[in-house]
């Protein structure tokens, strides 16, 4: 029998997990199973942007033994639309967004309970890489045009990594949290209108952090919460992933800066990045760089470029 204290905890910290998948058969079972390990996770919704039969088979097998799991195959809606769709399918006071290549070691509801004692509007625990690296992997300094230009030359990790000691107890305010793991109250998510669906992939979490700043901002709890096997989905479509991320950056600038400043910044960053990465022979290839530059330029002057297929 469920005790009164358990019922109270459910009503306060029951949580729904949204997993937006794309060709995720290699990691989806571990991800979903780790979410289900928390008894206060009352829904795990998998939105499959690839309509991948292997992913569907794995999730359906889990759902046969656990009624909390739901699966929906969709055309490639993009990350933001997938998150919003999944969130609408959860009827819980808290909502979590978990990448399909994340395996949790601790309960999502525990993170919600910890966040509830702070003034932050969105929170996450530390995600480690497969090799065990943990320092700031899933948080960054706030976006700025200067930092973005520096990142072209120095790399985003060096420019955006926060400077704090890993051993510090409790919470730290950060500029933004990576979308690989996010927890917040459903009411807060609804209040800001969810993710902006103009961001098909990447910069969705950057935009979310800006939108949530007025409601308390982003906090990182200095406790390892799981492992992120990063890039599992993007590696299946590297060309598209590279291009769509650059277009999303143009949209972020257009949304948060004045028209001419956004256009100047977008074009300056795009051209500098194209030249620097071409000279360095970066692995995305010349074809991806050329298409990214072309579509970024088009997005500046004629917004609404469609990249995802």
From TrEMBL:
Coiled coil: none annotated. Residues 18-127 form the Glycosyltransferase 2-like domain. One of its GO terms (molecular function) is transferase activity. Pathway: Cell wall biogenesis; cell wall polysaccharide biosynthesis. Keywords: Glycosyltransferase, Transferase. It comes from the Bacteria. Belongs to the glycosyltransferase 2 family. This is Glycosyl transferase. It comes from Nocardioides flavus (ex Wang et al. 2016).
């Amino acid at each position: 029998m469920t005790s009164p204290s358990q019922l109270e905890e459910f009503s306060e910290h029951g949580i729904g997990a949204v997993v937006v998948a794309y060709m995720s058969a290699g990691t989806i079972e571990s991800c979903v199973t780790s979410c289900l390990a928390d008894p206060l996770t009352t829904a795990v919704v998998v939105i499959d942007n690839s309509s991948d039969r292997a992913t569907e088979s794995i999730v359906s097998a889990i759902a046969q033994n656990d009624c909390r799991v739901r699966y929906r195959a969709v055309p490639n809606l993009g990350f933001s639309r997938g998150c919003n769709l999944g969130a609408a399918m959860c009827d819980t006071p808290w909502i979590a967004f978990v990448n399909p290549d994340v395996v949790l070691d601790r309960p999502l509801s525990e993170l919600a309970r910890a966040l509830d004692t702070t003034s932050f509007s969105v929170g996450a625990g530390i995600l480690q890489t497969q090799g065990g690296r943990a320092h700031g992997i899933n948080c960054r300094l706030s976006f700025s045009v200067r930092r973005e230009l520096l990142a072209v030359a120095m790399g985003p990790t060096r420019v955006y990594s926060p400077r704090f000691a890993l051993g510090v107890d409790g919470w730290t305010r950060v500029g933004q949290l990576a979308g690989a793991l996010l927890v917040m109250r459903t009411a807060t998510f609804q209040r800001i209108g969810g993710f902006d669906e103009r961001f098909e992939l990447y910069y969705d979490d950057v935009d979310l952090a800006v939108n949530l700043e007025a409601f308390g901002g982003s906090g990182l709890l200095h406790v390892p919460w799981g492992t992120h096997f990063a890039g599992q989905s993007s590696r299946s479509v590297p060309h598209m992933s590279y291009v769509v991320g650059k277009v999303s950056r143009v949209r972020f600038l257009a949304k948060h800066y004045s028209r001419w400043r956004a256009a100047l910044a977008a074009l300056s960053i795009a051209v500098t990045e194209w030249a620097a990465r071409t000279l360095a022979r970066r692995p995305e290839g010349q074809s991806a760089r050329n298409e990214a530059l072309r579509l970024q330029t088009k997005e500046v002057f004629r917004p609404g470029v469609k990249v995802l297929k």
